[in-house]
From TrEMBL, chains A, B:
Source taxon at top rank: Eukaryota
Gene that specifies this protein: NUDT2
Residue stretches spanning the membrane: none
Keyword Metal-binding tagged: yes
Name of the featured protein: Nudix hydrolase 2
Organism of provenance: Dendrobium catenatum
Amino acid sequence: MTSLAAYNGEQIDLLAAVNDDHGGVIVELKAPIDPRAFEMSLKLSIWSWRQQGIKGVWIKLPIELASLVQIIVKEGFWYHHAEPNYLMLVYWIPATEHTIPSNATHRVGVGAFVVNDRKEILVVQEKSGKLRGLGFWKIPTGVINQGEDLFTGVMREVKEETGIDTEFVEVLAFRQSHQSFFEKSDLFFLCMLRPLSFVIQMQESEIEAAKWMPIEEYTADPLVQKHEFAKYILNVGIAKVEKRYSGFYPVCIQSAFADEQSYFYVNSRDLEQKSSSANESNSS
Amino acid sequence: MTSLAAYNGEQIDLLAAVNDDHGGVIVELKAPIDPRAFEMSLKLSIWSWRQQGIKGVWIKLPIELASLVQIIVKEGFWYHHAEPNYLMLVYWIPATEHTIPSNATHRVGVGAFVVNDRKEILVVQEKSGKLRGLGFWKIPTGVINQGEDLFTGVMREVKEETGIDTEFVEVLAFRQSHQSFFEKSDLFFLCMLRPLSFVIQMQESEIEAAKWMPIEEYTADPLVQKHEFAKYILNVGIAKVEKRYSGFYPVCIQSAFADEQSYFYVNSRDLEQKSSSANESNSS
């Protein structure tokens, strides 16, 4: 910290901060600090940032320093987001309306449409949630972990719930729904996976039952027939099984700004048709 | 609150709580409360919930009651998520590993591929962010608001940034990337929109420049040529313009459990081909 001023004979330090890409600063508090000394440092720092024309101020506060939350809030900060071990607070110095980006808004779920060579679909009954105890057979589903790729997450969920090894085929469709988890929205990606093993080993903690069920039996199930979304899933999945449907396949791309990789999910069948038709016209 | 015990001659109340769908309880604090009285109530309530076999305990704490954060954390709660005006804390009573679902993990962005009848693409230069000042022309992009549908959000962003009215055509592809915003991941949906107006009205606050640029000129731009993701976007967008690509189109579905609506994005061309081929075989 830089010492800039004194209060009641005590030295007041500026908070250490790094600049962000948008004319703001980020303060990451780590070590315990006397609350009164912190309050004076925060006031002085805000004064100093204002002189410098700083816009947004972020404070990342570990949960161990929870006693400082009320001091930061009293200075006009609000909550931006929280993770198990820290709280991120934010403040906007200019008199203009803030342009602080919103927090993460979506949870991401996956569902696996897994059909074996005998035209049987992999289905489970869950121990908790809205469908528990209804005898409702559903495809394996789950929530993507922080930092996990969709195609990895869906294969992991199938393995965890049923013990079946799979290979990723395609994202067949996705659903966006709102207010699904407190105020948050939900993106659910329906994926087709190819099974690489056959013997089911059920996850006892979350799964009540798991089995391979003939697709025709599943389609005729009265509970499925009454469940509009289950019928949509079946409709798309069967179209894919019958090879008359194309979803999105992940292509690895490199970021222009960093050595980060990400996956771009595209209708690769349609894109490849381009090159094949181009090849045809070349050869003709 | 229910009064159950007394401490030092004072009455201690249980915290008011409602049950959730997973064997837990949710406490929503609203009115100011004396910190010491709150601490006693919280301890007594946890004791009582433990007797009842309650698993997860959620406390929703408005920002006005920030002074209570440290008391709740001291009882073993951790942060689950935060929104500007409240903090959600959570605690797991059983000795087993918790099954508390993770917080929202993804921000959702949209990009608009908008091409007019003269084969010109709508492009902008941004005032902030990593691409500022580089003279890089890009498609209009933006972040989805909480509770906003993808197809609504992408049309809103194009209108805000360029003044152009549009009609939604399809989601052409999407990208999942990680660590894009603090620890959060990002889902970016590339959408095709059909322009319904022509005259550009630029958003002065965020946009440096906006124009219609001939697709061939954009494709030849050296900055675009060096930017792998921009080339992928162009590749898919041009395939769509040339009518040899099918993305996902939103179909409205009704939830089985509530009167909620959501949108299911599917390759509707392939699904419709089914019915047309079925019709053909019927008529033949």
